[in-house]
Write a sequence for this structure.
């Protein structure tokens, strides 16, 4: 199906928007790797790192002090790190597919928006959950727990529609 110039411009705009936000989500995932590393040092610094005397220098003591103040668990920060990296990659993959999808400009905008909701929702929800130390879908507790649940629920609502749009866009006429 040949696209007109304005259609092609709209596809490129949707691709750029999706790539831009996908990379922000990816970078949030990379940043979540910093506290993930911190809790690993915090939780396992009593083993082989202490035997190697890794924390006897001034920098080592400073690193250990910072790591001891990192909230959350290793599991929670691993999830936050992977949610950001993987959801960022998902947005980049979908952006690369947009040029072959047979979707209207409105549907392409919807697809891009759904991918942003999914990426930011899952990533920020995981980061909030790791900071707060909460797990599960309960709307009780702290504000961060409620924001975390809202993020996960919005992502759960957005990704099925995005999947539907991609399936619709590749379907033969």
């Amino acid at each position: 199906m040949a696209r007109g110039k304005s259609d092609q411009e709209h596809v490129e705009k949707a691709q750029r928007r999706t790539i831009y936000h996908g990379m922000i989500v990816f970078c949030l995932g990379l940043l979540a790797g910093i506290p993930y590393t911190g809790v690993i040092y915090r939780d396992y610094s009593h083993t082989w790192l202490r035997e190697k005397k890794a924390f006897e220098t001034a920098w080592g003591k400073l690193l250990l002090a910072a790591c001891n103040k990192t909230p959350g668990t290793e599991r929670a920060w691993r999830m936050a790190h992977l949610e950001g990296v993987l959801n960022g990659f998902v947005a980049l993959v979908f952006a690369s597919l947009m040029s072959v999808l047979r979707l209207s400009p409105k549907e392409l905008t919807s697809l891009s928006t759904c991918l942003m909701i999914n990426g930011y929702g899952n990533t920020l929800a995981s980061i909030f959950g790791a900071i707060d130390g909460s797990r599960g879908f309960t709307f009780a507790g702290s504000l961060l727990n409620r924001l975390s649940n809202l993020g996960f629920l919005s992502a759960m609502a957005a990704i099925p529609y995005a999947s539907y749009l991609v399936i619709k866009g590749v379907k033969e006429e």
User: Anything to note?
Assistant: Residues 7-170 form one domain. The CA atoms of residues 59 and 65 lie 10 Å apart. The first helix runs from residue 5 to 51.
